[in-house]
Amino acid sequence: MKYILSLDQGTTSSRAILFDKYGSVVSSAQREFAQIYPAAGWVEHSPQDIYGTSVSVAAEALARAGVSAEDIAALGITNQRETALVWDKFTGEPVCNAIVWQCRRTAFDCEKLKKDGLTDFIYEKTGLIPDAYFSATKIKWILENVPGAKARAARGELLIGTVDTFLMWRLSKGKIFATDYTNAARTMLFNIRTLSWDEELLRLFDIPACMLPKVMPSGSAFGFTDKSVFGFSVPVCSAVGDQQAALFGQLCVDEGDVKNTYGTGCFLLMNTGSRAVKSKNGLITTLGASLSKPQYVLEGSVFAGGAAVQWLRDGLGIIKTAEESETLARKVNSNGGVYFVPAFTGLGAPYWDSEARGTITGITRGTTRNHIVRAVLEGIAFQVSDLVSAMQRDAGTEICRLAVDGGASKNGFLLQFQADILGCPVRRPKIFETTALGAAYIAGLYTGFWKDVEELKNLASSDTVFNPEMGEAERAKLLSGWREAVRRALSPQ
Ligand code: ADP
To answer: Cα(408) to centroid of ligand 1, in Å?
Structure first.
């Protein structure tokens, strides 16, 4: 057995990567699929696209490397989180399209939960703040709006799952009906303290318990793919939500370890070990990936990260490519007093102001596009720094380094500034595909393909590290300028 196959079922594409014993990429394949927008703010995926693209990229990755499924020690699955599906237990036929995490169709129901005073009740059990992102209200919507679904559910004819569950069920031809702790924790139906589906929440959302999958550790013997799928039965040994997979792929397995993914938005996750930390700053408490009892994680997100760079390119048109932002930012030796708060759709943690709007402060006659571009990159780092501070306060833990990944982490200026403003080293791994890598690591550790985390740490030795170089006075001056800019971006109270 020479390889681990990792399947990364994301929001816009499905990707398969074959890893060898050294944790190196042997081959990969990727396929995009359609985003379906049936109404304003609604987002759906075809379940057949989710499954079909997953199987085809896996087959393609194997074919490219000239590898047979027989040589796969284990399959690991990582997936877009919260997206919900409901299908027929006997035929496998979905009752409707998958409702995607971004879909806002149940926003009103979540507002009602808040008005009814259920925020604390839900937060205590699930670690989540009621929102349409999470699966519970999506499933309730399907059962109430698809003709006949409610009655079929009551008769025990339908099954519910997040994407991992649906994929495993299909790949095994109905033999695996399971999920892992990280995916279950995003449904808003799972009690992260008792580690079980919560009866009171199931009653609140009117969802029959018999529809729900068995919840297992992320590294588990989930079962085998059916022989007809890849020509050989492959053991499925990991299932894990994408952000938690990235945290594991970064080997943030100890309490206090933190990673940030710089994508369109940013996702910051801190491992808090056996402590389910309650946040006073609007962060989410969730479960991390493990091979046994799960660890707890604090999670926060920045709405506009790389999106601010896209705006420079597509909105303002002052850069041609995202990469150019680095060259321009380096042409000036400071931001020249210019600060950019990318509050395009409001500001999230720790400000939580949905009416805040994007703001540029400190423009003078001497301001050039280089200063603006630099201020945009700095603005991404400042927002991450605000989240890190909130997490440190909540967890009572000082972070001593930040692991990073995602498209915008290619930008060396951004990462150096991040290290400077945090005052701690920022570490970027050689393999950017930390999500797929995380699912592979977990599956590989479970099967004994890799011995332990120490072995994996040795494989990951060729990272790039950005060490802080900025003096304390300079850092304090910049942070104070940023705070003033945020103050101006916030809506009038
Ligand atoms: P997602 O998974 O959210 O689609 P990716 O991880 O693919 O995001 O990252 C894409 C984002 O990264 C885009 O918003 C893009 O503007 C930004 N980006 C890509 N390369 C760079 C770069 N060199 N400098 C700054 N931002 C970049």
So the answer is: 4
According to the model, what pLDDT value does residue 119 have?
93
User: Helices (H) and strands (E) in the chain — how many of each?
Assistant: 17, 23
191 CA → ligand 1 middle, Å: 34
Instruction: Let me know: does 289 contact 439? Beta carbons within 8 Å.
Output: no
In the chain, % helix, strand, coil (3-state, to 5) comes to 40, 25, 40
CA-nearest residue, atom 7 of ligand 1: 407
| Helical H segments across 81-159, by residue range | 107-115, 119-126, 135-145, 149-154
Measuring from atom 1 of ligand 1, which residue has the nearest CA? 263
> What is the chain's mean pLDDT, rounded?
94
From edge to edge, which strands make up the β-sheet containing 266-271? 284-287, 296-302, 266-271, 258-262, 402-405, 426-428, 464-466
Predicted confidence (pLDDT) at residue 293 exceeds the cutoff of 90: no
Q: Decide: 80 in ligand 1 pocket, CB within 6 A.
A: no
Find residue 261's DSSP bridge partners: 267, 405
Q: Is 26 helix (H, G, I), strand (E, B) or coil?
A: strand
393-424, pLDDT tens digit by residue? 999 989 999 999 998 999 999 999 999 999 99
- Would you say the CB of residue 174 lies under 6 angstroms from ligand 1? no
> Which two structure tokens, joined as six digits, stand for 187?
């449904």
Using one digit for the tens of pLDDT, what is the confidence trace for 300-350?
988 889 999 999 999 999 999 999 999 999 999 999 999 999 998 888 888
The strand ranges marked E within 342-435 are 359-361, 402-405, 426-428
pTM greater than 0.90: yes
